[in-house]
Design goal:
It is an enzyme of class 5 (isomerase). By secondary structure, this protein is an alpha+beta fold. Helix content is 17%, strand content 34%. It has helices at 2-17, 82-88, and strands at 22-25, 31-36, 48-57, 62-65, 73-76, 96-101, 121-131. Strands 1, 2, 3, 4, 5, 6 and 7 form a 7-stranded antiparallel sheet that branches. It is globular, with a radius of gyration of 18 Å.
Amino acid sequence: MKSLIALLAAATVASTAFAANTVEKLPSGVVVEHLKQGTGPQPTAEDIVRVNYRGTLANGTEFDSSAKHGGPATFPLGQVIPCWTQGVQKMRVGGKAKLTCPAATAYGDRAVGPIPPNSDLTFEVELIGIGK
């Protein structure tokens, strides 16, 4: 009987290790889907973060990426669109997430470069590091 309980416990641990990605919906409507859990610290809005990212429109068209700019981007987390400020604070260094940003948490009714007004945006973000 003990070995059966141990076997069931091991199976439960193994199945949770391969569970579906965790998804958080924030009060603002931002959705954070954790693709890979990080093990490092979580940033605050006052931190400077270093990330790799890829941004797409609702139709899947890529409008920007850190790769287009030669590698990781570094910026103050509190000085970007609200979706990023809110979503990246839910990540840990070493993690990857998909941020789904309602237009109100992105650029709202403003057109920015190739992004039309009132666009919902999606970002794949890898949090590489945090500074102050």
